[in-house]
Amino acid sequence: MPLLRSVAIRQRTTRSTLAVLSSPSWQSRSSSSSSTLNHLPESRLNPSPDDYASPNFADKADLTIYAGRGGNGCVSFLREAFLPDGPPNGGDGGAGGNIYIQAAHGETSLHKLARRRFIRAGRGKHGQGSAKGGARGEDVIITVPVGTIVRELEREDPAADEAMNIKAYMALQKQRRKEELLLEEEKRKRAEDLGELENEEILDRKGRPKLAPEEEEEDVEVDDPTRQKWLLYPGMSKSEMKSTSFPRLPRRHPFLQQPPAPIYLDLSRPTPRPILLAAGGIGGLGNPHFTSREHPKPIFATKGEEAVSMKVTLELKLLADVGLVGLPNAGKSTLLRALTNSRTRVGSWAFTTLQPNIGTVVLDKYSGQPTARSHKKPSVESDEASDAALEHRTRFTVADIPGLIEGAHLDRGLGIAFLRHVERAGVLAFVIDLAAGDAVTALNALWREVGLYAQMRDEEERDREAESRVDWDFASDPSRGPINLMNAEYSGSSVFEGASTPPGLHIAGKPWFVVATKADLPSTQANFSELKAYLDKITDGHAAHPSGVEGAWTKKCAAIPVSAIHGQGVDRIVHWTVGLLDE
Ligand SMILES: Nc1nc2c(ncn2[C@@H]2O[C@H](COP(=O)(O)OP(=O)(O)OP(=O)(O)O)[C@@H](O)[C@H]2O)c(=O)[nH]1
Ligand SMILES: [Mg+2]
């Protein structure tokens, strides 16, 4: 045993000496793998490709949500010594859990929801004997990032269907009774016309008019849907069940009204309170509710209501103030690093960035004193909170998205999936690599993709609106429409107002500027001067807006030369952006 131990110790020492011996080579290997891809010294702005933070991210999630169904009422009677036939004491069923949605600042991604796919609220517990009511089902609150859009795709509402069935059944019964009465009257008239002899044949023994045989056959019994809602004392036979007469179903009102279909929510601000998506089913009533003279000992209770289930799709549009748009490898991520504290990935190949990144530019250095002053006067329409934010702008956010390539609007590359994040940005910054060919051509190519994407979105939005309009007509109920509980902007009405706005203007109308990056590289001067001349022409109105959209923003098209990798010229971007944001 001691021998074994000594061998083990020796092995360990040899391994550790090996480690010591090999440490220089290991270090050199690690330094080579973590070195940058260019000759420049490694820094925060020129990091090695593996020096980055990559949070989990998803900007879409399809969910199926199930509200909880109500618990059943209970049929029970008090049983005590010397009290063989006690009064009914069945408890009521608990209500099912509701599903709410809430937008909160802490959330940044939908990846957790995308993985969950199904969300169920708790079901209400059944009532019990001794007048014990069932517990309520547990509610669920879905927390999403600010900037999420919720769209309902499909809904199943068994309670509403049941109510419809009952209504239809009632109408049918009424109609049938009316017809019967008419028939009776007719027969009586006929009987009066004929002599008393035939009279005996037509009227049956009770004096009611006899029905013709074929009429009796036609009379098909339709099952009473209200019977489905009752729950009978356990252990009763089917025939007993059929023969039991039930009282009228009591009218129940849910505590929370199910919002009408289709739900459409634009959660562009944090919601102070959760918003209801699916209301849980109502709990059933216990048998004491049905005690009456005819039913002194009711052997029935009502079942809990089935609850709504629906398919919803969540889409996150990041709410950044500035969107960086550029070809792959243009230097967007480096620029984001230079502007903010972001640790997004940087690499010298196309499609380094695979997911949108958001960074925050802190203007006040956390002192509460903005360095770049906002000159915005408070506007009347916007509410106080946003005014306050504008008055003391201490920070703004920048979104870096994967590079766009030609044909991105046709879903080539990665860009299209992420262009929607730029859609909401207040300002667009086109990042153009001065060392990668003609800057004007690059700018035009980028604008073309963005413009085509914008037009496509407009068409999509219009189609969607048309579809929902058809639905409303069908329902012939003007109050039904996409609800927007937040009073947040409903893009269907505010942005896309039919033929009055040219397609694509909601993006082309945004203020924009060009960041001409990699200006530190040799022979980029001429390229920059050409770009600047082109932008001046656009501002003066001698050249058309590169997107080709009429009425697009051409107020002050600027080009700012920077070297993001050295952090030079970046301050100008900050000042220029604040100026545009406060326009
Ligand atoms: N010389 C120089 N190189 C730069 C500058 N900015 C970025 N680069 C380099 O350009 C390469 C691409 O930079 P990224 O920031 O990853 O480019 P990107 O636009 O985010 O690329 P994708 O994410 O693939 O679209 C990297 O090797 C950077 O070091 C700059 O100002 N000067
Ligand atoms: Mg990138």
TrEMBL record:
GO cellular component: mitochondrion
Highest taxon listed in the record's lineage: Eukaryota
GO biological process: ribosome biogenesis
A single MF term (Gene Ontology): GTPase activity
Keywords from the named record: GTP-binding, Nucleotide-binding
The Obg domain, residue ranges: 55-319
Protein name from the UniProt record: GTP-binding protein
